[in-house]
Design goal:
Blueprint lengths: L4 E6 L14 H13 L4 E3 L2 E8 L2 E8 L6 H11 L7 E7 L7 E4 L8 H10 L5 E6 L9 H6 L4 H24 L1 H8 L7
Parallel strand pairs: 1-4, 1-5, 5-7
Antiparallel strand pairs: 2-3, 3-4, 6-7
Helix pairs in contact: 1-5, 2-3, 5-6
Length: 194
């Protein structure tokens, strides 16, 4: 409904050394959205926040400054400060169990081994919030997961970021306007090709 507010939390780690890392897919998607909308991020408590108007609604884009494993502190804080409930929260994060270019939107669920989602679930006390996972692939040996997710995207993957980020933005907007089922149908059906 018009006048409602939404909180879209893109997960990542702060600092230039992580800017293009796989773990920062949430940050990259929100940066592209803000740029396309002409919005500016301002440094606030627990993160950088931008407001994007959309068809009479306010969409708040949040990039937590707490590092990935403590993302829940930022999400809990901003859920308390903004006129937003868990039903109007979406979290965007990386996912090693999906190939690069694949997006998966779910209305709720477990953390799936993702420390950022785990922190959010623990801090807000529910798993009942939407999450959009951005595939980064699984190209690492046993024990190499941390180095992989903190490693940079390759040149071909960086070229696909604008298209991928655009699909994320469209998926979130579909969720806001038409609900989670229609948004899942849009997001989960077609991959961005490498």
């Amino acid at each position: 409904m018009a006048g409602e507010s939404y909180l879209i939390a893109g997960l990542g780690n702060i600092g230039p050394e992580y800017a293009l890392s796989r773990h920062n897919m949430g940050f990259m998607a929100l940066d592209a959205w803000a740029q396309a909308a002409g919005a500016v991020f301002y440094t606030r408590r627990y993160g950088d926040l931008a407001e994007v108007p959309f068809r009479g609604r306010s969409i708040y884009l949040l990039k937590p400054s707490t590092y990935m494993n403590l993302s829940g502190n930022a999400v809990r804080y901003w859920l308390g400060k903004l006129p937003v409930t868990e039903e109007r929260l979406m979290v965007i994060c990386d996912e090693i169990n999906l190939p690069f270019g694949t997006l998966r939107l779910r209305k709720d669920g477990s953390d799936g081994g993702h420390n950022g989602l785990k922190s959010i679930i623990e801090c807000i006390g529910t798993r009942e919030f939407a999450r959009l996972r951005m595939g980064v692939g699984h190209d690492f040996q046993d024990g190499g997961q941390i180095d992989f997710v903190l490693g940079d995207l390759d040149a071909a993957q960086r070229e696909l970021l604008p298209e991928l980020s655009g699909k994320v933005r469209e998926g979130v907007q579909t969720w806001i306007l038409s609900g989670i089922d229609r948004a899942m149908n849009f997001v989960n059906t077609k991959n961005v090709e490498k």
